[in-house]
Amino acid sequence: MYEIIMEDMTKVKGRTEISELGEFGLIDRLTSRFGAQCKSTIFGVGDDAAVLNASEKEAMLVSTDMMVEGIDFDLTYFPPKHLGYKAVTKGISDIVAMNGVAEQVTISLAISSKISVEFLDDFYDGVAFAAQEAGVDVVGGDTSASVTGLTISVTAIGRAEKERVSYRNGAMEHDLICLTGNVGASYMGLRLLEREKRVLGDVPNPEPKFAGYEYLLEKYLKPRARYDIVESLLEEDIVPTSMIDISDGLASEVLQICKSSQCGARIYLERIPIAKQTNELADEMNINSVVAALNGGEDYELLFTVPLEMRERIMNLGCIDIIGHITSAEQGKVLVTPDGAEIALEAQGFKKQ
Amino acid sequence: MYEIIMEDMTKVKGRTEISELGEFGLIDRLTSRFGAQCKSTIFGVGDDAAVLNASEKEAMLVSTDMMVEGIDFDLTYFPPKHLGYKAVTKGISDIVAMNGVAEQVTISLAISSKISVEFLDDFYDGVAFAAQEAGVDVVGGDTSASVTGLTISVTAIGRAEKERVSYRNGAMEHDLICLTGNVGASYMGLRLLEREKRVLGDVPNPEPKFAGYEYLLEKYLKPRARYDIVESLLEEDIVPTSMIDISDGLASEVLQICKSSQCGARIYLERIPIAKQTNELADEMNINSVVAALNGGEDYELLFTVPLEMRERIMNLGCIDIIGHITSAEQGKVLVTPDGAEIALEAQGFKKQ
């Protein structure tokens, strides 16, 4: 019916469900049509952030993320202030993952009628708090009505010296695979909140049992991006050969680096850092904490690689674990158990609900 | 219940409906808390795009927009390819409105299960088509699931010499108020599509009557951002004292410039450019075409001001109408009818559905 106004636009034919391709398959299919034509585009689709030319020495980094109510967060237990905080973290973390310094964010919202002005005040207080803490300016956004649910879009803008930008595709054989902090805590925080929601759904004045697991809640509800690591790397004059942030889960991110760098990886299971509370709650809930650590996601920690000879300098940074090393592509992507067995690494992504 | 992890975050109190504040009131309230702390932020919230420091001479421009199904578009008659095209236009238009050249966009989507891969293929074909046409690279995005409906978020990135950036706040008394193209056509295109949807809702194999109104459909479904004007202004070495794009409607944009520039404005009704098809369909549908022109919105034309002495040079550019002039704030914002009567300009915004 619209051929009148644009002959080159053909009608939709057939119907393939998105689930048939999977998220990564879909992204590959959709983005394959985009090449770069502007000379200011250094790197486009396919990393944590796009890399643009700012000046002779510096690059601008731009990243965008979306968070959807009912998919990425549940407002029955997610306080608006934390949600605003986490939205900023999600944006900044992508800039950090390029070894850049985040300087600005924009926040756009699609708001349903159930959202009050007071909710938004709290949300933006969280945004402002996170921005202030990270030294980032909130420079714009858009608000739209929404038929149902809250949708948040975050764009983060950062800067880095061009020669200090870490892509996903620079990992080399024998490089050390490094991980900041610990993994799986955010996922266990989510599981705890979901359990209390289930248990207390119909109880008036519910009193959820969170004692002893505050760290897990904080990792899920109010994670901080690891901009401190970017500072440490700069001070120590280290540029990772590749870097990515842990948003979809450790296993998925290792596979992303391997795919982009066309290499393999060996990860040693006993070296994966898991927090005490993560192990305790996993035991209590009969969840395998290694699965939480590998596939949990939303940790916003950094996974990166450096040349073998930097082992000493990485160890000196503190709070960084060397969990494995890069191999040739032929050697595959494997998880090595304490008894020496090898398991193929698989990405499950983060199934949130 | 979350005081445990962040004492400084207080609970939500009271409930004020967003409708009590209105869109502009809400934005003012929410953004008032954001100042600039980064030295790379030249201008943050409150214009079509944020202005960031790129190099000594150049600024980067960043803008973000959201489009929500059922609010901003209706998929029963909006072809996905046009929707992709229009999303890019919406982003680019904000950069153009700062007198900048758009160079990159990112597109994020929240996708419900009713959306097929073929739909997304078409959508991204439209994105690629618009980007190619405008010389812009698609450098990223995010996809998320959605419980209901499609939400699109666009971020546009552009560049301008710092001294050529046009803000909303630079209009001076006696400046000429200039408008590109014509206004009201997009709104009438929407009204036509809505009429045919109503009439043909239950008809099998509907054959909508669009003949003679193709221009209106194109202005609504597939508008092109006025990047050609930015080029013309550069060639003629003209820097508008203020500029804004027509997204919410001519009246609303005039008021925005007056608010930012702390001035008044006189707009002459008979000088407002309205296309022949706009007038014809308005007559047919018993709509006042002046109301469509003033309050319709989504024209993506440019409204700008230049000093009085540039009249000749503006006239030489072609396709630009001088529709009024800037006055002192005390003289108010008025629409002058052909018989000399003065009507206070009011912004209704664009009520789409």
Summarize the structure.
Two copies of one chain form a homodimer. Chain A is of the alpha+beta class.
Portion in beta strands of chain A: 15-25%
Give the oligomeric state: homodimer
Order of helices and strands of chain A: HEEEHEHEEEEHHHEHEHHEHEEE
Portion of residues within helices of chain A:
25-40%
CATH architecture of the largest domain in chain A: Alpha-Beta Complex
Give the overall pLDDT of chain A as a whole number. 91
**What structural category arises from helix and sheet content of chain A?**
alpha+beta
Count of discrete structural domains of chain A:
2
Task: Please give the number of β-strands of chain A.
Answer: 14
Count the helices of chain A. How many?
10
Q: Largest sheet of chain A, described in full?
A: 7 strands, mixed
Write down the CATH class of the largest domain in chain A.
Alpha Beta
Radius of gyration of chain A: 21 Å
Protein model, in words:
Chain A folds into two domains: 18-164, 60s Ribosomal Protein L30, Chain: A; 176-344, Alpha-Beta Complex (Phosphoribosyl-aminoimidazole Synthetase, Chain A, domain 2), CATH 3.90.650.10. Chain A is built from ten helices and 14 strands. Chain A has helices spanning 18-31, 80-96, 117-134, 185-200, 214-221, 227-235, 250-261, 276-284, 289-295, 311-317; strands spanning 41-43, 50-53, 58-68, 101-111, 137-140, 143-145, 151-161, 176-180, 242-245, 264-268, 302-306, 320-327, 333-336, 342-344. In chain A, strand 1 (41-43) and strand 2 (50-53) form a beta hairpin. The longest helix of chain A is centred in the middle third of the chain and has 18 residues, at 117-134. At the A-B interface, helix 1, strand 3, helix 2, strand 4 and helix 3 of A face helix 1, strand 3, helix 2, strand 4 and helix 3 of B.
